Amino acid sequence: MFLTVLPGSLFPHVKPVVGLDKVAHILMYAGFTFACLWGYRKQFVSNGLAYKKRAVLLAIVISIAYGGLTEMIQEHIVPTRTGDWFDFVADSIGTMLGALVFYLFFHRKK
After folding, report:
1. Quick one: pLDDT at residue 105?
2. So what's the pLDDT on residue 30?
3. Mean pLDDT in residue range 78-104
4. Largest Cα–Cα distance in the chain?
5. pLDDT tens digits, residue range 39-64?
6. CA distance 38 to 36
7. Residue 74: which of 61, 57, 91 has the closest Cα?
């Protein structure tokens, strides 16, 4: 959240690489969602399928809502930043990717 409210002038100006911003959003939210689910990993062993589904759904909802919130804050509160729907889409893609990677990682360990 801290980085999303910093003025854009504080970031280095480099020649933009097309799509690099979106890749960064995808990776950040994949990591965020994976970390949220990683906190549930011990409970996954001792609880049933319904618990697992709720945990995954909760992590996805939290991550997507957080992505939307940061974009709204950038658009409406931070005067030197703008929200971007494509950033939100990248956040959502990253969220789903993080959940998928966790699922594959967790089930491979069994």
Report:
1. 84
2. 97
3. 92
4. 50
5. 877 766 667 778 788 888 999 999 99
6. 5
7. 91
With both helix axes pointing from N to C terminus, report the angle between 20-38 and 49-76 in degrees, rounded to the nearest 10. 140
pLDDT for 65 beyond 80: yes
CA–CA separation, 96 vs 91, rounded Å? 9
% of the chain beyond a pLDDT of 70: 80
Q: What is the spatial distance between Cα 85 and Cα 66, in angstroms, rounded to a whole number? A: 13
- Whether the CB-CB separation of 5 and 72 falls below 8 Å is answered with no
**Distance from C-alpha of 25 to C-alpha of 85, rounded to nearest angstrom:** 12
Q: Exposed, middle or buried by CB within 10 Å (0-12, 13-18, 19+), for 28?
A: middle
